[in-house]
Amino acid sequence: MESRIEILSPKKLIGMRMSMSFADNKTGILWKNFMSRKHEVTHTAGTDLYSIQFYAAGFFSAFNPRAHFDKCASIEVTSMEAIPEGMEYIELPAGLYVVFLYKGDARNAAAVFQYILGTWLPASPYELDIRPHFEVLGETYKKDDPDSEEEIWIPVRDKNKNQ
């Protein structure tokens, strides 16, 4: 799986947030709710959608499928004016990310993340950073289609700078 390193500039988004776990995954409900109201978001900065996960420190070192995290369905905006009721402002902070292009449907996502976190990351000069993880769902994203494409952004930092 191809990857690249990117330095992300801060991004402003508006979206909906939901608490969930991998054992009680509510992603479909979250996105259904957001997509039915996406037209209410003004000042959009494009058409790409962002699926953002907020994990607590140590979430992956002591993985528990019942541990809760927050997920947001969102779109980038140029202004935070008129945030629709039931939605919120979300900021992706600047930082270093490893980006993977994933091609396939959501059924294989668990294996992809297991590879990224269990194989690629330990063999790399990076470690997880405590910032949001996210996926960019652009023009080539087609939900359950095997030809669907999305970018997976994982926050990282240099292993050697923290010793």
TrEMBL record:
It comes from the Bacteria. PANTHER family: TRANSCRIPTIONAL REGULATOR PROTEIN YOBU-RELATED (PTHR36444:SF2). Residues 1-157 form the AraC effector-binding domain. This is AraC effector-binding domain-containing protein. It comes from Cytophaga hutchinsonii (strain ATCC 33406 / DSM 1761 / CIP 103989 / NBRC 15051 / NCIMB 9469 / D465). SMART domains: AraC_E_bind.
